[in-house]
Specification:
By secondary structure, the protein is an alpha/beta fold. Helix content is 32%, strand content 26%. Bound molecules: flavin-adenine dinucleotide.
Length: 417
């Protein structure tokens, strides 16, 4: 009997978690990554595993976006340019900025989030992953009454869906994190969340996948997914080599629309650029932050990691490129200085940008493509790729091995658009 051969395109957190889950089930899996493992958006994200939060499509978001749109220092920025695919995406996005859509998303994402955090913890423990995993939650810190009100609303929504979120006064926050500056008006604590070193996590998952017999190839660019009739047969690489497979998993993050388009599939994904700036603890650059925080009004995540603090955030729609705008990097630490005492003047030890794959309805795309036997999509995770990595891997492996997943994810199917 011939064994099943699966190909995963993309070696980011999503591709690696899919490959790991397949290898764990004894399925022969090969990963094709055009660069290095974990070199895309999964390299430098904020490292929070943050389940159950509503999508970015929310009532009022479009008004907010229009007001902030052309301001290059606002957290959300759309670079002015002529791009019909961006206009189509913005139109589809705006139609989903409703209370009804938020509620529909919460009905799927709240239970999935609980599975996601369990799956993450289990994976770290079972495989003894060395990735600074801390299941200690994170804090939201506000400096305006409007920010505190928004945090209170988020807490209510999460509590309605079974999460243990709580609101906190400014004093209570300051007690838990002495590095917070005077003037903190309040915020929240999200105890169900966790943090880890995101790049180490991907590398550790890759290592375990290899041990389980998975084959990982770097520097291999997939040019095309091959089909015969209604079934995929494998891929063709940029150098012309053809690799055959029974299943192909497309997990190329923000780059997914290009390969999908060649198959006639139109994926409504835009690259949402985000930045990080890391400050070392030992040279007086970083504040002595004890707990991970998100700075509410400026949407900057501050994550203490081994020897440094990572400041990460901003959402910039400026196309499929890795150009870094200095001003937006500055914005991360400029915002942090208002909320946290003790940021020194030392040079950052790392500055980086990555592209989140953001769908127009704010939900990831996970599952088989109807009418294309053997083709599965695992993409569009937006701001939640790290959080949803292990559960996405499990879902994809269950689709391939059992024909259906053990969790309810029909709302994430690829043909919903
Ligand atoms: C600043 C910032 C902060 C974030 N913070 C968080 C957070 O705290 N928590 C969270 O859950 N998420 C966070 N995210 C989102 C998260 O990083 C992404 O959702 C996630 O990394 C997406 O993973 P991916 O595997 O789909 O994509 P990627 O990591 O981008 O991987 C895709 C891979 O596919 C490869 N590839 C592309 N085309 C081809 C091809 N043709 N052939 C072969 N290989 C190809 C690329 O080289 C790349 O390695 C953040 C993102 C940013 C930018």
């Amino acid at each position: 009997m011939r064994t099943h051969r699966a190909l995963v395109i993309g070696g980011g957190v999503i591709g690696m978690c899919c490959a790991y889950s397949l290898a764990r089930r004894g399925i022969g899996v090969t990963v094709l990554e055009r660069d290095e493992i974990g070199s895309g958006a999964s390299f430098g994200n904020a490292g929070t595993i943050s389940p159950g939060h509503p999508p970015i499509n929310r009532p009022g978001r479009i008004r907010e976006a229009v007001l902030q749109m052309l301001n290059p220092s606002s957290p959300l920025y759309v670079a002015p340019r002529w791009d019909p695919s961006l206009f189509r995406w913005l139109w589809a996005f705006s139609r989903k900025c409703t209370a009804a859509h938020v509620e529909a998303c919460m009905r799927v994402m709240a239970p999935l989030g609980r599975e996601a955090i369990d799956e993450f913890g289990r994976l770290v423990e079972d495989e003894d992953l060395d990735c600074e995993y801390i299941p200690g939650g994170y804090y939201e810190v506000c400096r305006t009454p409007a920010g505190a009100e928004q945090a209170r609303h988020e807490v209510e929504l999460l509590r309605e869906h079974g999460y243990g979120a709580v609101t906190l006064t400014g004093e209570a926050l300051k007690e838990r994190e002495p590095a917070l500056a005077a003037g903190t008006t309040g915020g929240a604590y999200f105890p169900d969340a966790a943090t880890c070193h995101p790049h180490r996590f991907v590398l550790e998952v890759a290592e375990r996948t290899r041990r389980l017999g998975g084959q990982l190839f770097t520097g291999r660019t997939v040019a095309e997914i091959m089909e015969r009739g209604a079934a995929v047969t494998g891929v063709r690489l940029a150098d012309g080599e053809v690799i055959e497979a029974d299943s192909v998993v497309l997990a190329t993050g923000a780059y997914s629309p290009g390969l999908a388009r060649k198959l006639g599939l139109d994926l409504p994904i835009q690259p949402g650029k985000g930045y990080h700036r890391d400050l070392a603890l030992d040279d007086g650059g970083a504040p002595n932050l004890q707990v991970p925080c998100v700075l509410s009004e400026s949407s900057v995540f501050c994550t203490p990691l081994d020897g440094f603090v990572r400041f990460a955030g901003t959402m910039e729609f400026s196309g499929l490129n890795h150009r870094m705008r200095k001003g937006r990097l500055e914005q991360l630490t400029k915002a942090a200085r208002q909320y946290i005492d003790g940021l020194g003047a030392a040079e950052p030890i790392s500055e980086w940008c990555g592209l989140r794959p953001v769908t127009s309805d704010g939900l990831p795309i996970i599952g088989p493509v109807p009418g294309r036997d053997g083709l599965l999509l695992a993409t569009g995770h937006g701001m939640l790729g790290l959080t949803l990595g292990p559960i996405t891997g499990r879902i994809i492996a269950e689709y391939i091995q059992d024909g259906a997943p053990s969790v309810e994810v029909r709302a994430l199917r690829p043909d919903r658009f």
